[in-house]
Amino acid sequence: EAIEKGGYEHFMLKEIFEQPNSIADCMRGRLKANEGKLVLGGIHEYANALTNAQRIVIVACGTSWHAGLVAEYIIEDFCRIPVEVEYASEFRYRNPIINEGDIVIAISQSGETADTLAALELAKSKGAIILGVVNAVGSSISRITHEGAYLHAGPEIGVASTKAFTAQLTVLIMMALRIAHRKGTITESKYHELLVELESIPAKIKKALDVNDQIKEISARFKDARNFIYLGRGYNFPVALEGALKLKEISYIHAEGYPAAEMKHGPIALIDEEMPVVFIATRDSSYEKVVSNIQEVKARKGKVIAIVTEGEETINQIADFVIEVPHTSEALMPLVSVIPLQLLSYHIAVMRGCNVDQPRNLAKSVTVE
Ligand code: G6P
After folding, report:
1. What is the DSSP string of 213-253?
2. 89 lines ligand 1 (CB under 6 A)
3. What does this protein do (predicted)?
4. Is 364 a catalytic residue?
5. What is the ipTM of this complex?
6. Could you tell me the pTM of the whole model?
7. Which of 80, 166, 180, 297 is least surrounded by Cβ atoms within 10 Å, i.e. has the fewest?
């Protein structure tokens, strides 16, 4: 087992550090920005159906559901196709509306999650075209779907999903860019800019991983906290949910993720000098709004840990701790901004003596309903 961990103390840490490579593997043979090449070989026969879809429904559970939320923003933004993201367990039990030509996409690391599988079977029986975004080759979901795209992220052993999440985002971004380019809902120059940017993501993640030591220090400061709040807006809202889930799963600290603007409708009541609030506050279209949200938390004496873009100057004056990540396009930011949150949950869990790779009560793949 020590050999399999490749010198890391836990599989989770190994998998976090593997991400520059797992994302490069995910894009290998699919993306070549200088040639303007972007292909997803696994989606071939249904490529037109996907491009012309009137509606896309995404079904997933857990971290994969968070990847689906990011996909909703990207597909609606670039492809102008309405997207609904459903918990598979809710979708399947509520007589969902599926119309001819609807596309249902399942996102699953294991390809074996019982609820996701059952949701797909239901959608298939109602005439939907079902596609899979799956890591485990030959898994049940990959077998029942009409077509799909594998993650090629390699086996993920840690129960808390890390490299599968970023590979899911990578595949979903490639899928959205393919659709948008075919449909003409994105300009040629924006398309090329995003291809180039996507190709640079492994290097940017590598850089984001440099914050590891700084995060250890922050973790030591907050390891005994009883609650955490994670806030973000736009593309970074699902990242806030994912950061909170990672912390709950492995450190057993209660954590909530919220859209930053919704804070006023509840979570703000929880804020006092004891409450750590993690903001994902990178430079994007909602940046100014997030800065005001940070001020609102500071006015109530909350402790702010902010994930910011390199070169940030304003938030440094307000937040208690700032963690810098490299700049990228707004739509690709979750790939980078999630990295410090994975590390934060990891180090806090280790410092609390938790079994990081096999947290209590959780399973890597939930094959019961
Ligand atoms: C379990 C795992 C999570 C995972 C979820 C969905 O809860 O512990 O890490 O996100 O199942 O799994 P899937 O394999 O369908 O992505």
Report:
1. HHHHHHHHHHTT-SEEEEEE-GGGHHHHHHHHHHHHHHH--
2. no
3. Catalyzes the first step in hexosamine metabolism, converting fructose-6P into glucosamine-6P using glutamine as a nitrogen source.
4. yes
5. 0.97
6. 0.97
7. 80
